[in-house]
Every structure is written in structure tokens, then in C-alpha cells.
Amino acid sequence: MLWSFEPNRFVVEEAADLPVGRALDLACGEGRNALWLAGREWQVTAVDFSPVALDRARGLAAAANLEVEWVEADVLGYEPLVHGYDLVLLGYLQVPELERRQALEVATTATRPGGSLLVIGHDLRNLAEGTGGPQDPGLLWTPDEVRHSDFTVARADTAERHVDGQVALDTVVRLVRLGREV
Asked: Domains, the chain, ranges and CATH?
């Protein structure tokens, strides 16, 4: 399935005012958020397991004359640079809870002190109160599961996303890693 070239609105809301730096987009799909960040002069590494999605992303990047480091890898086995990124994005990863925890561990490891970790996913409340998204509750996020002791919460809520005149509910969490850069 081909998605839009436009970035996710929650990525725009949370990252537009962050200082430009190094970004890691985990489970990037066709790269719409990675491309938006690159267009704002971020140095972006984007990771996905799908060669088809990455080929599409490379084509979009070439057409827009944007540079992104595209990495074909499963997020769960990917080993990012420890504390190497100012922004780590984990968007709409739809895996069971244990694998979500593993993905969060990869993401937290990659986030540098003072850097942001942004997690966006279909919210568990969407099953009863929203539309679309996975129908298996085991694949859905909640804001509380994203919290981490090494981070402070900048945002943690269930947000509305309008889709074809209907409302979907998403978990949107931005955490900021405690400590200072060394």
C-alpha cells in the first residue's frame, strides 16, 4: 500500500520547533516522516524491514533531492548508535506488547541526553471509540506503556486523527531524555 508523502501531523506538531540535529526514524515505511525531517535539514537515518517500502522512499527522496540514510533492518534487531540521536521516532509500529517493549528499548538506547523520543501509534481506545487501525487489542498502544524512568514527559495523550470524516484515536508520546550531552 502506498501512503501519502505528507508527514504525520503529530510528527509535525512535536518536531517542528525542535533544534535540528540527528534523527532516527524506526519502522519508517515509505519514509514520509524521514523525508520531512530531511527537508528541514535534519541528518536522518531511516530503518525499515521492507525493501519495497525503502525502494519507494529512496525514489521519493531522489525526486525531492533529499538525503536520508536508508537502512533495511528489523527494528527489533537493529543496533543504533547509543545516545546518538537528537530525535528518535517510532511511528505506527504494530507488533505485540513484548515486541513493542523491545522496540522501545532500541529507541530509548538511541536517544541522546536532552533528545526527544516520539512514539505514535494506534491507541487501544480506538477499538471502542475510534475508526480504522488494527482490530487486535494486543497490537495497540497506550500512553502509559511508553513512559520510561530515564525520560521526562513532554506529551503523553490519546489524540484524535480525522480520517475520511471519521475519528481515529492515536497514542502520542514525546519523552525527553534526562541528563546533558557529554
From this structure: 20-73 (3.40.50.150), 85-182 (3.40.50.150)
Distance CA 33, CA 31 (A): 6
Could you list the pLDDT tens digit for every one of the 182 residues in the chain? Answer: 344 578 999 999 999 999 999 999 999 999 999 999 999 999 999 999 999 999 999 999 999 999 999 999 999 999 999 999 999 999 999 999 999 999 999 999 999 999 999 999 999 999 999 999 999 999 999 999 999 999 999 999 999 999 889 999 999 999 999 987 65
On whether the CB atoms of residues 154 and 116 are closer than 8 A, the answer is yes
